[in-house]
Each structure stands twice: as C-alpha cells, then as structure tokens.
Amino acid sequence: MEDRFKTLLQCPLFAGFNPGELEAFLQEVDYKEQAYEKDEILAMQNEVCNKLIILLSGNVRAQMINEAGKIMKVEDLFAPSPLAIMFLFGERNRFPVEVVANVHCEVIVFSRDTLLSIFQQNKKVLLNFLNLNSTYAKRLSDKLYFLSFKTIRQKIANYLLKLPEVNGAVTLDRSQNSLAEYFGVTRPSLSRELANMQQDGLLKMSRKHIKILDKNKINSIVL
C-alpha cells in the first residue's frame, strides 16, 4: 500500500497532502482497488458516471465510437490521473468516451456518494476537485478552439505557438505519429505540410526541434 500512497500523492486531487494525512484519509473512506489488462474496458461510452476512477499505474486511451461503429481516439491518459472528473455530477452524468487499457493498469475507485461525503469532511479535497474541473474545462475549451481549424497548417501553427519557446525554437512534446493522431490526420499528410511550411520559410526542422523563422506569419495563420 505504501506505493499507492506515493502514487496518490502525485495525483492533483490530493495536492497538499503529506503521506501521514493521506494514509489517515484512506483509512476513513470506502474505496476499491482494481486491475485491468491490456485492451480491457474501464468504462463504456455513455455508461452512467457514478464513480471516480483514479489511474494508479499504466495508461489508458479515451476513444469515441460513432453510430457506424467507427472508433476515433481522443487522447491517452497516464497515471496518476483521475478519469472523467467533469462528468460525475449533473443531469447527464455519463462517460463521454470509452476508456480502454493500453497496458496493465491499476486503479482506485471512489463511489460518487463516498466522494460527496469526502467533500463535506475535507475542504482540501473539495478545493482540489474544483480546481481540476476548472483546469479540464479550460483544456476542453482549447480543444474546441483547436477543432475549429480546418487546415493542417492552422493546426500546426496553433500547436507550435503553445509550446514553450527558447531562443526562437520549440521542442515537440510528442512524436509525429502521435501528433498526426492528435490532429486527426495521417502521418504522411502531417510530414508533407511540415515540409511545405519549411519550404515557405516559416520554420526550420531538426528532428523534434523546430526553429520558428517568421513568427508573425505563424501567428497570422491562426487568426
């Protein structure tokens, strides 16, 4: 259980806790620990969201399935991370995506009723929960803004402008395969557009490092 404490201390829901506080806290509340193997489903799309699942180890993928049965990957989530925290409450409290294990995963699960009881007893957890919801709402807003871009060039420009810049250069925080998946395009299409942007004098690539040559033009692409 000691490893669980160390992992949970890194989860933003328990920010500000020390090991002793967390141990005492877990002794007073009901929870379950579960394990999932690769490709097992942690939560079904549209399943009622009446529990808080916190990923303790491994990583999962969130994916949406349309009426035709086509699967679209939304994102990968890594431990330690709470899942679907924004959908625990409200009239339509259902999982918006299917959550599937990419590898062997271990989770800890709190029922919604237990969580409500925790909020009443522990202000720190309540504030962390509210802060997390605010953070995820901002992330969702950014995602919707990103999806409004129709061209690959717009998506690339927006992505580059959000990365930390050092001496006019940025470092990609994911592989081109992962980036293409994130953009919802093929890897060849992404590579071709990056090459076009380099040919147009907008940037210069060196593996995962990109030198922005004309920031004004990069900015104008997303306006």
Structure characterization notes:
There is one protein chain. The protein is α+β, with helices and mostly antiparallel strands and 223 residues long. It folds into two domains: 2-138, Jelly Rolls (Sandwich), CATH 2.60.120.10; 149-221, Arc Repressor Mutant, subunit A. The protein is 41% helix and 25% strand. It is built from eight helices and eleven strands. It has helices spanning 2-9, 19-28, 112-121, 123-147, 152-162, 176-183, 187-199, 215-221; strands at residues 32-36, 41-43, 51-57, 59-65, 71-78, 81-83, 98-101, 105-111, 169-171, 203-206, 209-212. The strands form three sheets. The protein has a four-stranded antiparallel β-sheet with strand order 1-8-3-6. The protein has a four-stranded antiparallel β-sheet with strand order 2-7-4-5, with no helix packed on it. A hairpin with a 2-residue loop joins strand 10 and strand 11. The chain is elongated and about 60 Å long. The mean pLDDT is 89.
Give me the secondary-structure topology:
Layout: H1 2-9, H2 19-28, E1 32-36, E2 41-43, E3 51-57, E4 59-65, E5 71-78, E6 81-83, E7 98-101, E8 105-111, H3 112-121, H4 123-147, H5 152-162, E9 169-171, H6 176-183, H7 187-199, E10 203-206, E11 209-212, H8 215-221
Antiparallel strand pairs: 1-8, 2-7, 3-6, 3-8, 4-5, 4-7, 9-11, 10-11
Keywords:
4-stranded antiparallel beta sheet, 8 helices, Jelly Rolls, alpha+beta, 223 residues, Arc Repressor Mutant, subunit A
